[in-house]
Task: structure prediction
Amino acid sequence: MPDPEKIKELKNLATLIRYYTLVATTHAGSGHPTSAMSATDLMTGLFFGGAFRYDLDNPRHPNNDRIIFSKGHASPLFYSLWAAAGKLTAQDMLTYRQFGSPLEGHPTVAFPYTEAATGSLGQGLSIGVGLALNAKYLDKLPYRSYVLLGDSEMAEGSQYEAIQLATHYQLDNLIGVLDVNRLGQRGETMYGHDLMAYERRIAAFGWETILIDGHDFAEILPAFEQAQTVKGQPVMIIARTIKGKGVSFLEDKNGWHGKVLSPEQLEQALPELGPVDQAVRGKIARPQDLRPQEVQPQKAGKVSYEPGKAFATRKAYGNALKRLYPQYPKMVSLDGEVSNSTYAEIFKEAYPPRFFEMYIAEQNMVGAALGLACRGKLPFVSTFAAFLSRAFDQIRMSQYSDANLKFCGSHAGVSIGEDGPSQMGLEDLAMMRAVLNSVVLYPCDAVSTEKLVEAMAEYKGIAYLRTTRMGTPVIYGEDEEFPIGGSKVLRQSEGDLATVLAAGVTLFEALKAYDELKKEGILIRVIDLYSIKPVDVQTLQEAARATKFLVTAEDHFPEGGLGEAVRSALAAHPAPVYSLAVTKKPRSGAPEQLLDYEGISKDGIVNLIKQLEKRL
Amino acid sequence: MPDPEKIKELKNLATLIRYYTLVATTHAGSGHPTSAMSATDLMTGLFFGGAFRYDLDNPRHPNNDRIIFSKGHASPLFYSLWAAAGKLTAQDMLTYRQFGSPLEGHPTVAFPYTEAATGSLGQGLSIGVGLALNAKYLDKLPYRSYVLLGDSEMAEGSQYEAIQLATHYQLDNLIGVLDVNRLGQRGETMYGHDLMAYERRIAAFGWETILIDGHDFAEILPAFEQAQTVKGQPVMIIARTIKGKGVSFLEDKNGWHGKVLSPEQLEQALPELGPVDQAVRGKIARPQDLRPQEVQPQKAGKVSYEPGKAFATRKAYGNALKRLYPQYPKMVSLDGEVSNSTYAEIFKEAYPPRFFEMYIAEQNMVGAALGLACRGKLPFVSTFAAFLSRAFDQIRMSQYSDANLKFCGSHAGVSIGEDGPSQMGLEDLAMMRAVLNSVVLYPCDAVSTEKLVEAMAEYKGIAYLRTTRMGTPVIYGEDEEFPIGGSKVLRQSEGDLATVLAAGVTLFEALKAYDELKKEGILIRVIDLYSIKPVDVQTLQEAARATKFLVTAEDHFPEGGLGEAVRSALAAHPAPVYSLAVTKKPRSGAPEQLLDYEGISKDGIVNLIKQLEKRL
Result:
């Protein structure tokens, strides 16, 4: 039974936090006060009840406990907690949702106590999985990762991906706090206040579950204590709560989601909270000052491939991870049950403790990778390019966490052949280009793949590498450099009629087209546009000036890919750019047949250039 | 206990099917024979054991039972079943995976017995949910929907989205068949042959579960019989199977996923199957000849909005659904727990039986919508534009089913304001443009929204509508027409310096820029580019000829959106196109502040044009 004095103190803190919540949201004119109020006692109990350990002056301390608000719309609570801990003033709280304030509508990394941006529901638990994997298997630190979950968001399948993986990796350092307040945005959730419905499901996946009244500190504090004693499995505290708890006309009422009180309603509500002690501040226990063992980087070995020999870029990706790990000892690899196709298995076999099998659950894979990145790791995430689309929301959200995350999508394009369209990545360039400050790379051979994986490792931010299923000949020497934003002019003469811009598998089609056209006396410039974003504007502009028109050829749909990247690069100095891309519904067939069918093979390039030449 | 004669017949059929599987895959040189063999007895029992009812001569019969191979890589089994039913010849089977054959590597709708294309795992059960919702709530027909599931794909969270929703809607006409063959692509699954692990999880969500030996017809047939007697809940038959069953050197062996036998290995394997009766054909029971009640379309009412009055396009979307339903009685609306934000609730309140609350589970929402579309319904799927990214893989896959599916993404762009970046759709245009033959629409006012929803309903295929959170003034008259692929030239004079292309919220910024520039003697053309794909090439080319340069302004990231659509339209007749788009990490703030911050407001447009004018 917790100390009555402690409970009294926590009640005072909870009152202050509800006060901040209501005042800040009314002042902002928008926000989700009722979703904050249901979880206030839970989080107050966690932060100030003794379980949570955190160095307030050093949010990046490697042994801090971690807290993720998966229900990011409870941000008024999140900020109020740090205010109650003394790290924000009452005045700061009034900047909530104002332009320029770090206290954004949903938590972002503009606020130093935010581990990762949230607000798209059902992502926080995956981030927690990443944080917990890091503690248990990499940093080997005793910190715990707590995730506040809403009941509505338990409808997201990503939750069950995270739940099953956490069990698989026996993450007893991961503690979910499920705020079952019964009401979603537009009405009751699927299970209302049926806590057992959640317990059955979560326990079936192998979690320890603890059911409590989420407004009773005499249940909250022992729950967090008990959670710390569980071994070998994650813990979910499932709490019955009341949305809008603390204000009678808000409590358990539908229609108050995402609504704030008017100033008049606020005046009516505040007295209901009882006396507010604006001076009270909560204490958070400090963590042990433990740090992970640091591994000193060592220079990576050299790239070595036999020129002219066919080698799949996907396999070079695996080789590159293995080769580069000594130089980037923060590197980890995550793969979605296809490591023998993406060739992440080469890394896995070389450095088993640095590889995480994430099974066929791409959303959780990306969320967990973000969690690992938050703890300073350098995650390389791989699956088929097509299946990265499964995690677009997680990829999108990771840009708001300023994540240092690397993606590799294998099996790009129709050139995968017989497996058919479901397995073909044909929209991955569009998807990955549409991420703020992303880097998008598409190598054609093994050497450039290796060099570009290194460039990705060096780059701080989100980077994507597109690899090809089939083998392609090695055309670059081992000392060739491949800076991000560069390109390679592979064929060039005085009097080039046109420039062909290609990458990956189509680059070889362009080279074949060069040979064939040359025989007929037509000279073309051929550029390997391995860096799709940023794209080599200068070289493109030179080519546009030097040749009559440009032709792009890509194994991707026309929208958002290489062709549009080229056009955007030339926007102010326009030149005619003709695009060859995948425009017919792809089918099963041999790679060469499919490249021909889509008109992106040598013949397609040759025919277009001859046709355009006639028109000149 | 099933009839021994029946079992003998089924065994003969299963032998023939395994024979076809092995021969076809070896002939093709690629495929997944072992994944087909584990499920052969299950599917043979379903098809030919009496449970499955199907009019072989009429695959589109509305009362046929439905079968979805969620594990689409078991396609050799899928095709072999129809061969064993007499609908494909041994010769047809040899076209498997050949270019031009309907027997593609993963099932596509090129094959008339495929309900929906599969191959990206974890999607079939959602499609089944849609098929079952249709039977129970719309067509009111007794057909059942069967979904063959792999054990590896049970790691996908989308499965649990489908599982929970099926329980919620009491889909006792949905029967899953889980082929637990223990082995995934690169090794053992998370649970191996622990059938109880699957049972605990699935039963916890409220499904009836039946555990069987998946190779014993004496268990398979009763399981399907029992499944038909369950009331009020869906059923999962969880079957212990052996990957590669039937050939000793394949059975339960790792390393055989996605691999075919060499001709020599085939010769060694075939005798192990026992005598193959190539003449045996299975009988499938016919369904009752029931048909859904047809509702005659009635002309929809007229659009009516007060000119100049602010009205949110998202609300006009809801109004349009309600107004148009009588004209499109196949219409249904699905929403992800945000119907009071997307305004799908207007339709829901008018036509409750046509609305499906799908909770916060976007993947399953899109999969189920595809299932409904497969049964001839006209689904409109709505959520925040940002959260449609959660279902990109399902959207991507639906293009391979030639789906007639409509999407609405609300809360587009930074103009949503204070909620911050997690809620802002800033990559939805890029995502939806990169879908084959998609239509992408972005209206600026209530009238054009209504007209474009009608155009979407009329269009056969995938169409996307982008709506805005805040109110925008009604600028179009009620009789204005908005064809797909059109645009509206709103300001135009002799001597226009530049053309501004905008849509949605930026259109009003462009109109304000027009007013301001006009005062300074600079005339610009302003075009409402409401159809982003297809885009109005002719009008753009005219504008490019008539004015010195073009400026695009969009509340979207620069890649894959309106700006790149314009450039692609002008590719062959290039003109300078300068783009204003969201290029800084968005924040919380007032809509106007954020439009200013990103430089896509009136000031951004005016400043760019004046700056460019000086350079001329």
Q: What stands out?
A: The longest helix of chain B spans residues 4-28.
